[in-house]
Amino acid sequence: MGLLYTCLKYLVVSLWSIFVIAPFLWAISTSFKDFQSVTNGATYIPWVDFEPTLEGWRALWKSPAKGGVDIVEPFFNSIFVTCAGSLISILLGTLAAYALSRFTFKAGFIRNSDITFFFISQRIMPPVVLAIPFFIMLGKFALLDTLLGLIVVYIVLLMPIAVWIMVDFFNKVPREIDETALIDGCNPYQAFYKVVLPNSIPGIIVAGMFCLIFGWTDFFFSFILTFTEVQLLPVAIVALNSSITPWWSLSAAALVSVAPLIAVAFVVERYLSKGNLSGALK
Amino acid sequence: MAKIELQNIAHSYNPQAADKAYALNPFNMTWVDGGRYAILGPSGCGKTTMLNIMSGIVQPSEGKLLFNDVDVTKLSTSERNIAQVFQFPVIYGTMSVEQNLAFPLVCRNFEKAVIVAKVQEVAGALSLEGLLKKSASKLTADQKQLISLGRGLVRDDVAAVLMDEPLTVIDPDLKFRLRRQLKEINQKYRSTLIYVTHDQNEAMTFAENIIVMDAGSIVQVGSPSELFERPKTTFVGYFIGAPAMNFFECKLEGSHNVSFGGASIITETDLSKTGEATLKLGIRSEYIRIVETAGINTIKAQVQRVEDLGTHKLVSAIFDNQNVKIKVKRDQEVPLDSVSLEFPARHCCVYEKEQLI
Amino acid sequence: MSLIASNLCLKADTEYHLNDVCFEMSKGEIYTIIGRTLAGKTTLLKTIAGLIAPDSGTLNLDGSDFGRIPVWKREVAMVYQQFINYPHLSVYENVAFPLKQRGILKTEIHNRVMKSLLQVGLEGFEERKIQALSGGQQQRVALARSLVKEANIVLLDEPLVNLDYKLREQLREEFRNIFTAKASEDAILIYSSTDPVEAMQLGGQILVMDEGRILQQGNAKAVYENPSSAKVSQITNDPAMNLFEGTVAEGKIILSPQIQFDLPRHCQELPPEKYNFGLRAAAITLDEGGFPFTIELSEISGSETFLHLKHEHVKVVGLLDSVQNFNMGETVMARFDTTHLYAFATDGTLKSSPYSGMK
Lengths: 282, 357, 359
Known about the structure:
The complex is a heterotrimer.
Chain A: H1 2-31, H2 35-39, H3 55-58, H4 72-102, H5 112-124, H6 127-140, H7 147-172, H8 175-183, H9 188-196, H10 201-217, H11 220-225, H12 233-239, H13 247-273
Chain B: E1 4-12, E2 22-31, E3 36-40, H1 47-55, E4 62-67, E5 70-71, E6 82-85, H2 97-107, H3 112-125, H4 141-153, E7 160-164, H5 172-189, E8 192-197, H6 200-206, E9 209-214, E10 217-222, H7 224-229, H8 234-239, E11 246-252, E12 257-260, E13 263-266, E14 278-283, E15 289-291, E16 298-308, E17 312-319, E18 322-329, E19 338-342, E20 349-352, E21 355-356
Parallel strand pairs in B: 3-8, 3-9, 6-7, 7-8
Antiparallel strand pairs in B: 1-2, 1-4, 4-5, 9-10, 11-12, 11-14, 12-13, 14-20, 15-19, 16-17, 16-19, 17-18, 20-21
Helix pairs in contact in B: 2-3, 2-4
Chain C: E1 2-12, E2 15-26, E3 29-34, H1 41-49, E4 56-61, E5 64-65, E6 76-79, H2 91-101, H3 106-119, H4 135-148, E7 153-157, H5 165-183, E8 188-193, H6 196-202, E9 205-210, E10 213-219, H7 220-225, H8 230-235, E11 242-249, E12 252-254, E13 260-262, E14 274-279, E15 284-301, E16 304-311, E17 314-320, E18 331-336, E19 342-344, E20 350-353, E21 357-358
Parallel strand pairs in C: 3-8, 3-9, 6-7, 7-8
Antiparallel strand pairs in C: 1-2, 1-4, 4-5, 9-10, 11-12, 11-14, 12-13, 14-19, 15-16, 15-18, 16-17, 19-20, 20-21
């Protein structure tokens, strides 16, 4: 019974791991292939099945004129838009969340929880519903196909996440800490940035990670709201899928697009596991 | 309804380490069927670990646990027939009181008639009959705590009721009601009650036997009056009683005598086998008497402060650079002056290296 | 030189948190606000601190309107019952925080912080992280931070209630000396508590609070001896004072057909009526000449035994001087020492007290 159960457990976990890891392995191996090794039937093991080449990777920063795919500009566009959108969302979201957590708002039947819900409700609707109004509004302000326009849209999309996470986090920070800061001579703004904020870093990191992930992986809005001037990485990668798809470069580009998230996760994980953040507040 | 034995039980949260630090040092302990026990000690003394070992939340790293001579060390909590009450009441807020009490039986697929009868019986014992149809979330804290307890009691075969500071959230005037009901339950069902607390007063009022713990070890097991009258160590003397026992550094003087600050105190303890020259004399502040004239077993102390505590007065005095506290009746006048204090011989305890002789 | 509150009111929905609270506190004194949980103690302290604005009423310190000053400019310090410190700062930085906030010179900050830490017994802990401290130590840090400011008003909201029994006892004694020293520096010290013994032990003045109202104010001894109402007698005694209904008729007090006793001297002039009589546990003892009572519960506490007794509708708690064991349900004879009897009118006001006679 015990042994069988253990075996079964490992079997399920192994199957799941294969399911998760296989696409990665496939993308990695494809990124080192050339036209021959992709089109002539399935090949798996480098140097045995096919001769690995760096052509797919080199193409990433070669211009299309020279037979490359050039995703350098979309890559940095994506980084800029995601970071700017996330930063502003965190900044505004944290302030909004603090107000929602600490002060009581009344407007007719509307209370704090209704306001919090209003923020989140932005994310309840399917993106398609939001896309058309965004398109029209950005058009009116001449922000279509610009980085600024994308940042504005990302703030609308990411701030609810920040507000939601931070309200929850601030509610767990004892109100008495702010009160003590006030008694100790801080005005409300000082109490916020000298006392509450330093104790909320774990929450901000979590909120920041979610914003970065959602911003970075967005395809739909950047696809709809940009045309020729500005291109973000996810759109650029999908655009490679033309009549003659360079599977090797596409795989390499896909791996490049995952890399920043892995780096962020790695750094945050290191930071959190140092124990200087978790457990700061009970 | 079971005798519980802990044989060579010890627990370390890190048993693989070379110099494993025990949260609970090896010990043996038997809990008599139907007894009312309190485990008392400061935070971090291992009392909750001991309770968790009995309930099965913690697997002891060493030793065996027997219920009625059956080894249950490896059994899970649900297989041990234990009722537990925690610091905060655990109730199913969406259910009525009746449903709450019936829940453990419903889960075990008992027949309806059996369930109804059993719930009625337990509700009667806990004086919850009038509330059966009420929603559990609408009750007061002590009633909720009774339901937590009642859910444990509806099962026929409860070996023991384990409680971890169950009165913390209860208002002082309701505490009495709950304590009384616990004692009634104990008499009626003869179930073993084990109660963990840091509050010596609660332990004294509740238990027949108190297990005093400190730093992962059992220091003394005894009835409330034993612990009060003859604390085995100076720690027990300090921990039991409010205020703590008075202790004085003193010198061995004769077969029954000790001296300090020029005063000689006769005790009922045989000190002839004591090798140590420096000892400690312990006496409860309740037993020190303020007398008119100096005589046998008296010291002349300087009164520093008299506190009016209502029914009592607490007198703080100083003698030979050592503090002494005396608890006297409210009516007694105490001058802020030098007074004679008598130490009745039969209430004097002598300690050698912090251990009672 | 005093803090005067007049007619402070604070209402939430239909419930009063503060109900017409008036008091006058003078510098150099310790005040204990005693009341059950949710009596409004914390609300009152926070109102004095300026964290809560009352719906109406004023606070006046030394002749100026204190209520209009924002919290961060009031000269107050507060210690909470939860252990509240700044978790991201070290012990030293925690205590130095209020001083840095005022832009005081570094050397002076250092001197004052070290002095405060010494006072609360935390010298050598300067560099520790707050999370690495025990509950008692965390509360010492909070106290040090409240002392270092040298504020005029120090508010202590049940600072010991969340500590272990013995630690509470130890700190109560240690802190009292600190408080007395602090009060003597011309500060007003306000301490809230649910525990009557704690209030008595601190000495000083007592304010009895219930349902947002101040029921009685006076020095500890006066409140103990002459509780102004039956409610006060319940709040300021542990165990609560025994209350039982009785009728005065023909020079006797009649509790039930079986339990009757002569009017004690200080109650002679009570007009024949129904009263609520009050008697502390210590005044009920076992005596063959007493009345038969059933023991509901007997509890040993130190060298004493509490007996919960019942006779028909009369339920009382008695206190014996020795440790004795009884069975539940046993019948004993209990005597009421009527020289310590209080008489309250049916509406609760004190009519006669053993310490000051008729009211």
